[in-house]
Write the structure tokens for this entry.
Amino acid sequence: MDLVVGTMFKELAGAAEGLRALLERCGPVTRSEAVHLAAARGRVLSEDLESPVNLPAFNRAAMDGYAVRAADTRGASPLAPVYLKVDDEAGEGRCVPVRTGMAAPPGADAVLMMEDSLLRGEELEATAEVHPYRNIARVGEDVALGETVLKEGHRLRPPDIALLASLGLTNAKVYERPKVAIIPTGGELVPLFSDQRPLPGQAREANGLICEMYAEIWGGSSRKTQIVEDDAGLIKDAISENLDADLILISGGTSVGEEDYAPPIIEEMGELLVHGVRITPAKPTALGFIDETPVICLPGYPVAALAALYIFARPLITMMAHRTDLPRAVPAKLAGKIVSRPGYLTFARVGLKGGVATPIMTTGAGILSSVARAEGYVLVSEEVEGREKGEMVEVNLIE
Amino acid sequence: MDLVVGTMFKELAGAAEGLRALLERCGPVTRSEAVHLAAARGRVLSEDLESPVNLPAFNRAAMDGYAVRAADTRGASPLAPVYLKVDDEAGEGRCVPVRTGMAAPPGADAVLMMEDSLLRGEELEATAEVHPYRNIARVGEDVALGETVLKEGHRLRPPDIALLASLGLTNAKVYERPKVAIIPTGGELVPLFSDQRPLPGQAREANGLICEMYAEIWGGSSRKTQIVEDDAGLIKDAISENLDADLILISGGTSVGEEDYAPPIIEEMGELLVHGVRITPAKPTALGFIDETPVICLPGYPVAALAALYIFARPLITMMAHRTDLPRAVPAKLAGKIVSRPGYLTFARVGLKGGVATPIMTTGAGILSSVARAEGYVLVSEEVEGREKGEMVEVNLIE
């Protein structure tokens, strides 16, 4: 690909082409780590898991009643009961009271339900016949020793974790989460949650926080550098210090002005594949690799950054994180027209209620408040000029 | 309702009836708390949020270019350019270079794009006309001072949090999460993750962990007591100590044997509404209230416990937690028959792949491994006797 330009977007990449350029050189994370089961929810197994034990480890009564030798009950009925001696041990002609969950005593091979028996002093009147292993959970019935209980790639949900813990396990080997390093750049930015108030021309750095949270939602682990000034040397240093990451997100510094440093730096340090994509409103996005680490430069405008995150970072991070469980788009009917620019993929915010999607009108990519009012977004493809009122569209939920 | 019985389920409640009995006496949590925005993801606002500032707080250049007085560019075109003096301050006949995001200097009311101008020494050749406020984001354009940016009931997603942080906020007032107290009972249980190995007749206590994790997933905050022995006094103590909770889940001790303590205790301490429901495999479930706190007694069998959690605890906890965002059922085609008992709501586990749901055959409610193989479950209603192969069903995903 040879789309790279100096300070102007001479040739823009398509969104799909840009994404493909990233995906085809990346893969799911293969590093793994052992995590305690209590902290393993949502993690993905990196190996098949075989049971170290039988579950149950003993023949377990599955009903409240009397453990018996099935053969002793042969022919028993309300009209022709058989009588068994109630005892502490099982054996011919004897029965042992058991409750659900208890071990069936040696010698007993079935449990006669309470409802099918009547206690008469030290004798039990059995009014039903039971077959061998009736009302008994046999050794290994739930899980047999050595059986594969969960496979590599399985995402751990509460009952899975309970199952593993029931087998006596404490840890599970899972894939590491992809490491996402976030580098916010821009001399005009002041940190969030600080006493520093932005002066005219300044803004609070919020895109880095958005990146951090989404990296986690999509299955990654995130770390964020301090805000880096508009200085090529400082930006290079920040990148160099984070090349161990599985993905670097650089926020800001991607447009075509003289102070936009990130794309030329990627070109210098590695390979700039794309600078400028036909996405409204994420045109200034840049994509590249430094060594084997993919780098996405996100536009500074928050809505544009969000669009670039959803279109490029989400598929990349979820793929790296072995995540296949994230919610998919839902169908909805458009309550109004969406205007879009042909040739550009448009990230159109919509409200969503009862299967009806309402386009949210906004004046620009800077308008973060338009996202607060949006439940989701519709991607309008390059081939069409907007979508008409009444059309069915796929709404991707804003997570 | 008068369904309560001594030690036998004389009359069973329907699942919907049982759930209604819980829901109609409970409501969303109204207590609120201030949380730091960095920790507020997924929380639900307890009040409308008005902006304390204008965003932007200044007229902001929305493009790289030159801040001008729009009037000065009137009639400008490539054939009839107008000339402006490049200066540090704006004013008649003057322009000031600006970059996206910078404050437009006082006196300038528009930005002329770089593309529409040519720098000739200290003069700018303007080749296009701009209208007032063209390429300028005006004070308060994104969010105006005093404007309601997010409403009570809104669940905070990353861009919402970024918006609030951009307004200079650090905390948000959100609803407290419903407190779910979990009391595992049973003398046969040994703690998870301990060196203690279960002896015959014993089992590791895993249901409490399932409850804990689901309470969190569904929007609650959970706490779990130690395992409580089968002793009425100890169980009463554990309940009394947790009556400040919004919901008490008691695991085990709900069947009809002599050692099943929980339902009679609820009756003694408060009101037992339901003991025994027509749900396969969650029949022994009991429902009641002590003071104003709802209590759900879950069966000891793990799959039965899971069914009762999904059918009773999930709607209750999500309602209390103001959660409306959880995934809904997805349609799928049955790859095989599901057998069910008429008159009973059946919790049938299914695998799910590419829109096809495959029933998972199992022999009993104790088989936790059947859940590990299930992506979801189908609820087969009381009115039907199973579902046929090829039928369309709604699959609820196991979260």
